[in-house]
C-alpha cells in the first residue's frame, strides 16, 4: 500500500518510510499490536473507512494515527517536504 498526504489546497505528496526500512516492511503504530487484518477482513468490516479519518500528519509532517507516529525500520514515516497537518490516505 502507498500512503500519501494531501493538504486542503490540493497538494498531494508521498509519505516516505525511513531509509533503512525494507521493501514490504510492516508500518507500525505504538500501542496497536497484533497481526494485520486479512484483505477479506478489511473489506467486510470496512476498516479503512474507520481508520483513514484519524490518519494525519502532525506539525512536523510525521504520519500519525490518533496522534501516534507511524514507524518502520528505525524511524518515522514522513510526508515529502514535511507537509504538515494534512490528511493521510
Would you give an account of this structure?
The structure is a single chain. The protein is globular and about 35 Å long. Strands 3, 4, 5, 6 and 7 form a five-stranded antiparallel sheet that branches. A four-stranded antiparallel sheet has the order 8-2-1-9, with no helix packed on it. The longest helix has 7 residues, at 39-45. The protein is an alpha+beta fold and 89 residues long. The chain has helices spanning 39-45, 47-51; strands at 4-6, 12-16, 28-29, 55-57, 63-65, 68-72, 75-76, 78-79, 87-88. It has two helices and nine strands; from the N terminus they run βββααββββββ. A hairpin with a 2-residue loop joins strand 5 and strand 6. 18% of the residues are buried.
